[in-house]
Known about the structure:
By secondary structure, the chain is an alpha+beta fold. It has one domain. A three-stranded antiparallel sheet has the order 1-2-3. The two termini are about 15 Å apart. The model has no long low-confidence stretch (mean pLDDT about 85).
Amino acid sequence: MNYTKAPWKCERVFPENASREEYHVTDGKWGGETVAICGGNQDNALLIAAAPDMLNLLHGMNDRLNDYFGITDSCEGGDFFHDEIRAVIAKAEGRE
Length: 96
């Protein structure tokens, strides 16, 4: 995957000629990359800003469960929770 590296930040901005504030998800660097524009919805921006951290956490949980069950991602096995983690990772990586 080739996405903007974490950490992402939720920033409140006031665009020119806008009637209200907007929330942008950025890489947090001055003049850096805007990852998403969420309009006036701060909750969406906060969730998107947390996405890389959540994906990294899921990868770590998946690795630990693989070790626990003695399987690899190419094998079936584990439990429902493990299957759900793999499904969410696949969705985030566009493999769903």
